[in-house]
Specification:
7 strands, elongated, alpha+beta
Amino acid sequence: MAQPPNIRRIRSEDFDKEYQGLIQKLSYALNEFIDQTIFVLDRKVDFRNLNQQIVDINVRTDAAGDLVSPPSIRTTLNGKVIGLYVINATNLLNTNIIPTAQPFIQFTIGENSVSILNASGLQVSSQYRLKVLLIGDNIG
């Protein structure tokens, strides 16, 4: 990953005398912003800083592969959920049986919750623990 640039601080002495008063007033806020931005970009932004939530849900499939009693997930996100991904799927009945494809979840969005409707890619007549990544959107 690229490193953030080494940006020099704004100093009033670097400007003509007539602008030094203005530069001095602006430089405090700008230098603070630059310092904080570089600090954040310099290995301080990680997955936990994003508007996301990881939850484990247990689901059971019937003989047709449909979910039995699909669960709802309470969210702690800022804004609404715009998508979710299954990042791990563990068969609780037999760990040697894995999903037939990347599990894809169909869902609806409620007030601070997501209702699971169905999931594809899971073996029939099985129970799974799904680790799900919910992604939030602050806009709208």
